[in-house]
Amino acid sequence: MVDGRAGGHERILAGSRDAAPDDLVAAAKECIADGPIGIDFDHEVLGEANDMMMVAVSGRAVNSRRTAHRLVGYFEEDAVLSYTQYLEEIDAGRSKNVAAPAIARRYWKLADDATLRDVVLVVRADEALHRDVNHGLANQLSGQPADPAPVAPYPEHADPDR
């Protein structure tokens, strides 16, 4: 529970976060686009007494599903590279390999003794799957033949009912 000014700010941010996706989809449709991708939330406290809050939400509207899937594929590709670099930091001892948080162990169905490294491995595998699926859909939508390379496997410990 958070009260006072911080609680008010938290409620504003939560309300904005909940309403923003619908607003962005509506704005994208007005531009004859399929929908927004790359959504960014930002906020700033304003006024002499810090009594105003500005919340800015932006996204890129695309009117090509092929382009949207290709862009998301590139975002996921970058995520895979970032998680690979993070693993290198953990392996080199520059980032601590702490115990995995309980929420991550539950979500990814990891062992009780799982570490941060284990979490990064499954998240990277999930991002690799998203990368491959989105690039594959972009190829399919552009009439290219299917890529014979296998799609990254869905992490076997993730909940298949999602």
Low-confidence residue ranges: none
Q: What is the terminal separation in angstroms?
A: 29 Å
Question: What's the structural domain tally?
Answer: 2
Question: How does the overall form come out from the CA principal axes?
Answer: flat
Sheet with most strands: strand arrangement = 1-2
Q: Please give the number of β-strands.
A: 2
Task: Estimate the helix proportion, in percent.
Answer: 40-55%
Q: What value does the average pLDDT take?
A: 81
Instruction: Output the structural class.
Output: alpha+beta
- The rounded Rg comes to 20 Å
Report the sheet with the most strands, covering strand number, pairing sense and barrel closure. 2 strands, antiparallel
Oligomer: single chain
- Count of discrete alpha- or pi-helical segments spanning 4 or more residues: 4
- Write the element-wise H/E pattern from the N-terminal end onward: HEEHHH
> How much strand?
5-15%
Question: Briefly, what is this?
Answer:
With 162 residues, this protein is an alpha+beta fold. It has helices spanning 4-30, 65-91, 102-108, 116-141, and strands spanning 35-46, 52-62. Helices cover 54% and strands 14% of the residues.
Task: Output the keywords.
single chain, 162 residues, alpha+beta, two-stranded antiparallel ribbon, 2 strands, flat
Give your account of this protein's structure:
With 162 residues, the protein is of the alpha+beta class. The chain folds into two domains: 4-63; 66-141. It is 54% helix and 14% strand. It has helices spanning 4-30, 65-91, 102-108, 116-141, and strands at residues 35-46, 52-62. Strands 1-2 form a two-stranded antiparallel sheet. Strand 1 (35-46) and strand 2 (52-62) form a beta hairpin. The longest helix is centred in the N-terminal third of the chain and has 27 residues, at 4-30. The chain is flat.
